[in-house]
Amino acid sequence: MTSAHDETPLLRVLVGPPGSGKTTLCQAQLTAGRWGVRVSLDDARARFGVDAHDQSATTRALAWAFHHVDQLLARGFEVTIDATSTTARERSNWLAIAAAHQTPVVAVIVRTPPAVAHERNAARERPVPADVVDGMAARVAALTVADLLGEGFAHVTEHTTAAPEEASS
């Protein structure tokens, strides 16, 4: 982890369904020295549950992630949230934590055709149920930059992945 003095406090929230390429995009940015510290809800689930897909660990994983992000922002770090964040309710938690630190929040909508998301998801060891992917994909497809700015995000970017080799999460 780099020192807080090398970074400008910022919270970045990835928004996309399973299989859209969020984790791959985030890892590429981190490898290039951008996007600060990654906080992954899947990694937190693995920490408190059986594995990254253990939904019974979600409550503890979220509590840990909220606390960890709060601490990182308090120390001045740039933080990227690697989670689906497909509902305003989910995103509001991150916005509230950032507001407590007067830290700007940016959203990155990761879009991919549903068929590609399903193909990537099906290749996973433990795929997310197709109807869950469909619901999240529909919410993201309907989401606009104006929606996210209205929720309180300071800036919104969109990233589209299409080819399966472009991203795998």
From TrEMBL:
A molecular function (GO) term: ATP binding
Transmembrane segments: none
Pfam families in alphabetical order: AAA_33 (PF13671)
Keywords for the protein's UniProt record, in alphabetical order: ATP-binding, Nucleotide-binding
Domain of life of the organism encoding this protein: Bacteria
InterPro entries: Cell-binding_unc_protein, P-loop_ATP/GTP-bd_All4644_prd, P-loop_NTPase
SUPFAM superfamilies: P-loop containing nucleoside triphosphate hydrolases
Keyword field contains Protease: no
Protein name: ATP-binding protein
Source organism per UniProt: Amycolatopsis eburnea
